[in-house]
Amino acid sequence: MIGIGELRSLLQRYDVHPSRSKGQNYLLDRRVAEREVEHLGISPGDRVLEVGPGFGALTSALLERTSQVTAVELEEGAVRYLRDTFPQLKVIHGDFLEVEVPPFDLFISNLPYSLSSPLLFHLLEMDFSRAVVMVQREFAERMVATCEDKGYSRLSVNVFYRAECRVLENVPRSRFWPEPEVDSTVVLITPRPAPFQVKDEEHFLGLVDLLFQHRRKKIGTVLRMKGFLSEGRGNLPYLDQRVERLSPQRIGELSDALVDR
User: Fold this and answer.
1) What is the spatial distance between Cα 211 and Cα 14, in angstroms, rounded to a whole number?
2) Has domain 4-191 been given CATH number 3.40.50.150?
3) Distance CA 157, CA 180 (A)
4) Directed axis angle between helix 248-260 and helix 201-213, to 10°?
5) What is the distance in angstroms between the CA of the first residue and the CA of the last residue of the chain?
6) Are the C-beta atoms of residues 242 and 215 closer than 8 Å to each other?
7) What whole-number distance in Å separates Cα of residue 171 and Cα of residue 72?
8) Burial of 159 (0-12, 13-18, 19+ CB in 10 A)
């Protein structure tokens, strides 16, 4: 464990002021960091991208296993700390959602709670072999939820369509400072080919977004409301159901039927 006093000293020295509203909570437990890096399964030659390294809880463990680590950090004080402490580390100062990053094989991050969704959707559009992320526990539950679960969402469908996702371990809030209001969860993401085919992937993903924006309405109502469907039903499936009860494959069937109209 890194002491809170040691962390506060670093924050003061590098003029960093963690914001609860931005989900800036620093991991104190080095054992958790070591396990995250072990789950990543680094092999010789792997290029690793770390996002939001802060004061290097994961970074030091990564650099013990490979020299090919690139870190993207937005906080200016943390960037100075990383460059002072890890001269072998390539540091990109900026927002992961906006900067250009070099090709990478493995991805790791303790994602800020407030940015977990946009960061994860951005990551899923990229080419990589494996990712280990720590997120809010409820967010992790949504990542692996099925249509039988309360947390089933647009996120669940997008993750299932693009990758295998596995919950690895839960991390108590007491392992962070400032202590967040919720516990965290470490998740392994392994991209794979889509488990089902759709005729138009862009249309399918857009339909997922649309239907989950109106998840309490029947699908037919949403499609008519948005001008995708006239009063005639045609032969479209699932119009009397709500999207929260449809598996990703069935949403794909609906997408294909709409494309064929």
Assistant:
1) 46
2) yes
3) 27
4) 110
5) 60
6) yes
7) 23
8) buried
Q: How far is CA 132 from CA 50, 116, 128, 173, 236, in A?
A: 10, 13, 12, 18, 39
HSE, CB side, 13 Å, CA atoms: give it for residue 220.
Answer: 12
The pLDDT profile of the chain, 261 residues, written as one tens digit per residue, is 678 899 999 999 999 988 766 667 899 999 999 999 999 999 989 999 999 999 999 999 999 999 999 999 999 999 999 999 999 999 999 999 999 999 999 999 999 888 899 999 999 999 999 999 999 999 999 999 999 899 999 999 999 999 999 999 999 999 999 999 999 999 999 999 999 999 999 999 999 999 999 999 999 999 999 988 766 556 799 999 999 999 999 999 999 999 988
- DSSP 8-state code for residue 209: H
pTM of the entire structure? 0.94
Cβ neighbours of 175 (radius 10 Å): 20
∠ CA(35), CA(8), CA(28), 5° rounding? 15
Specify the residue for token string 């857009």.
206
